[in-house]
Design brief:
Number of strands of chain A: 0
CATH class of chain B: Alpha Beta
Mean pLDDT of chain A: 86
CATH architecture of chain B: Alpha-Beta Complex
Distance between the termini of chain A: 40 Å
Number of helices of chain B: 15
Helix content of chain B: 25-40%
Helix content of chain A: 25-40%
Number of domains of chain B: 1
CATH topology of chain B: Amidase signature (AS) enzymes
Shape of chain B: globular
Order of helices and strands of chain A: HH
Structural class of chain B: alpha/beta
Strand order of the largest sheet of chain B: 1-3-2-4-6-5-12-13-9-7-8
Low-confidence stretches of chain B: none
Largest sheet of chain B: 11 strands, mixed
Distance between the termini of chain B: 18 Å
Low-confidence stretches of chain A: 62-69
Oligomer: heterodimer
Largest interface: A-B, 38 and 44 residues
Chain lengths: 69, 465
Amino acid sequence: MSADDLTPPEAARWAARSGLPLAPERHAGVAATAEHIHSVVSVLRELDFGDTPPSAAYRAGGEQHHGTV
Amino acid sequence: MEPYELTVAGAAEAVRARRLSPVELVESVLDRIEQVQPRLGAYVSVTADRARRSARRAAEEIAAGGATGPLHGIPAGLKDLIDVAGTATSASSRVRVDHRARADSTVAARLSAAGAVFVGKTHTHEFAYGLTTPQTANAWDRSRVAGGSSGGSAVAVAARAATFALGTDTGGSIRVPASLNGVVGLKPTYGLVPRHGVTSLSWSLDHVGPITRTVEDAALVLASLVGHDPRDPASVAPPPGDYRPGPGTDLTGLRVGVPGNYYFDHVHPDVEAAVRGAIARLEALGARLVDVEIPMTRYIRATQWGLMVPEASAYHERTLRAVPDLYSADVRVLLEAGELVTAGDYLRAQRARTLVRRAWLDMMDMDAVDVIAAPTVPMTAVDAGQTAVTWGDGTVESVSDAYVRLSAPANVTGVPSLTVPVGLDPQGLPIGMQLMGRPFGEAAVLRAGHAYERTGTARDLVPAA
């Protein structure tokens, strides 16, 4: 565990701020899993997104008949 | 041959020609379920009485006016994330113990309208959040994983305990268990099959599709599922055309991309050999093989996790606070930790999806390929207790990460992906080849898969279990 890793008390505090109180016995497991998720998704910070929009763009008019993926 | 052994196409022809009644067919499949369920555990619930009533109704309709289509009177299993009015959608979870669906999902309603007979609901890894489906055993070897999350559907079809089934696929959950059990699985283009009434894992990545014994059957089921539904915001109208592949096996004119990177890295040699042999078969049938380089592979896992993890936690927000002890340990900790993903990370994943999708389509355009052929999963079914795999270079990977690695790109990009059986490894376990197409290019992947299947030695593998 490096100095930057999420500690169990930090995980508990973050979860509480998200509205999810965690019992003390949950803190270590959630911290380790959250740290793993963070290590996977933070790779995306390497990308220069420029003006790229998110893929979940809103389509005015509701029904859409000829979308593209 | 017993009626339960028939494919969808075979059963449909027998029913159409009035050589087989839906009542006999459904009774045969229900008997088969009774026979294999204690060993394999594919089903959460079996709705025998309801199925018998539906079969009698189908028989009356066919006697009065003939079969309305190829699914009329055909027995089907539904992954237990798919709502059927008046029955529980358990999601294979204790969280849903008192659940009752008030209405049919779009796909259940469409299959019912086509005359399909629901024989039961099949097991999923809890809420589709996993790759093994621990309640269900592999149809080929009970000590091995079924794969997931649509493990019950794939095992039911492989064991002839459903003539076809539906699954859902967020990172590979149709294709992984289909591959590990030697059956066909199709993840359609994102938006082609409506998800209304299907329990979500991740709105950005979820798909619904068929699990069948043959490619032709997958095409027959797909045709009954497509069509715009405004209740699913991702839903689109299908392009005109027929999914059912023709009888011929000539692939002249089809350009098949063969990845030089990613898809053959950290793949078991038996899997690689079988898939390369199957690709050579496509070439022998007239397809032109084209080397392709898969773009942005470093960001596929990060994009998939960045979308799926916070979306799953959002879906489960209320129940995770109300009844956390009712979740399995592996799912609970993921949902809890998912609450800590920031909005910044989530938006990066949404924007990365845009980039990966564009780069993938540019690659297919630049090389003018219709289909990309690759392994579906890097190894066959592992022992039920195994949690990690060690590759030849010493790299250790979790079993879940390995099973999702080659299937997730089609979820991130939204392109259609079909898995077809291409043989068995020396332990007698099935190997799958994945055929990925252009968006809404289902017809091309089905054509290639069907031609392979018609000329292969691995057609319609039957497990001994």
